[in-house]
Amino acid sequence: MTAAGQVESKRNAGYRAAAMVEDGMAVGLGTGSTVFFAMERLGERIAREGLRITGVPTSYQAAIRARRYGIPLSSLDEHPELDIAIDGADQVDPGLNLIKGRGAALLREKCVCDAAREVIIVVGPTKMVDTLNAPVPVEVLPFGVAGVSRRLSLLGAAPVLREGVKKDGPVVTDNGNFILDCGFGAIGEPRDLEAAIAAIPGALECGLFTAYKEKITVIVGEETGCRVVSLH
């Protein structure tokens, strides 16, 4: 697929997701380029149709972009239950298990995913895989990074501290933590791996999303439209 085709596929997926948002909804807003197309379309609907929604962003970046599009914002404190969440993914397998976190917002994204009654995942076709095998990001308390790295190594990972771009030193999340990118190879049992990582002191959250497949709908953008994948 050409670069222009990739942009068009993301736009198609984002716009389709935005069409699923109804008046009066509280909407979780994920982080990433495909979600930003959904925000763009929501901003158009607010301006042209008078759509009334409240957005709950998963990162500073998402909040900045949402304000640019005129989307009113709130927080999970004000809206602990969300009608719908729109987010992206790094990989999606046939059972709708996800790897997320390339944008380092995985902890807040999982909080929003848990709070939403319905979760719309927008991706391009290359994100659909037979078996999850991308690096799994793990958000780590800086105080415990050495110990967490050791425990992750015992699980078979090769943890790498994510370094900043245009900034010396590690990436610091919106929560003030570090990210370890962990290559496990092919992940045959993602739910078991997610549970094992969650049991490590200092590992605050990982990018495996395995508990929400029953409320997830995946919109796969193509150059000429979309296809929809769900288990319900």
What order do the helices and strands come in, and which of them pair?
Layout (H helix, E strand, L loop, with lengths): L2 H17 L6 E4 L3 H17 L4 E4 L2 H9 L15 E4 L3 E2 L5 E2 L6 H10 L3 E5 L12 E5 L4 H10 L3 E4 L16 E6 L6 H9 L4 E4 L1 E2 L6 E7 L2 E6 L2
Parallel strand pairs: 1-2, 1-3, 3-6, 6-12
Antiparallel strand pairs: 4-5, 5-11, 7-9, 7-10, 8-9, 12-13
Helix pairs in contact: 1-2
Protein described:
The structure is a single chain. This protein is an alpha/beta fold and 232 residues long. It has helices at residues 3-19, 33-49, 60-68, 106-115, 145-154, 190-198, and strands spanning 26-29, 54-57, 84-87, 91-92, 98-99, 119-123, 136-140, 158-161, 178-183, 203-206, 208-209, 216-222, 225-230. The protein starts with a helix and ends with a strand. The strands form three sheets. A six-stranded mixed beta sheet has the order 2-1-3-6-12-13, sandwiched between helices. A four-stranded antiparallel beta sheet has the order 8-9-7-10. It is globular and about 55 Å long. Helix 1 (3-19) crosses helix 2.
